[in-house]
Amino acid sequence: MEHEVITWTMMNWIYLLLLIVVGYVTYRRKALDLLGSLFMVLMGLIILLSAGWKWLILILLFLVLSLIATRYKKSYKKDFGLYEGRRTAKNVISNGLIAFIMAAFGGYYLPFVGGFIGAVATATADTMASEIGIFQQPRLISTLKKVNPGTDGAVSVLGTAAGIVGAGVIGIASFILGILPNPLLAIQIAVISGTVGCFMDSIFGAVLERRNLINNEHVNLLGTFCGALIGILSTLG
Known about the structure:
mainly alpha; two-stranded antiparallel sheet
């Protein structure tokens, strides 16, 4: 028993070190500002202690996918003013708060496991859709009229496909990590929640953000909430 406690403590220290390294790298690579990196480390630490390293790895996977998508064709994005650049603590909180809340209870109740996967899948799908979808002429989701890439509430076939792939990766990883042992259920929750959450994000952007009723952080928060809700409902069927 004592040996298991020591092993558990050592592993947590290792994952904490990994988390700090990731936080440092994201700051040095200008993916997050200092406060954003600190918030990411803090939220990751609490997820590690409350839900375990597997849940932490899933969050870090979202971060890696987001960084890859953001850096993809960086020069092109900069030329057209579409490169978001360094994100802040507000971005970290708006994308991660719902998943953070789900993780606090996920180790004890299955619906919150689905909620966690749904929230992470939505955040991943939204980022992938936003960063990849700008390479195709989008349409405003509320009117289907053609708009410029980067317009709030804009959607495209390319972006939607990228979002679905991103959500699917989260589902597969959820199964591989053992967060949800049923592979079909894990992928189903991630893809459906991620896709619905991503579309809801676009709807909020088109209907509310474009009218300056809410900002981008509010949109992200509402989108991940919708994804988490779908994830929770998927485990109750």
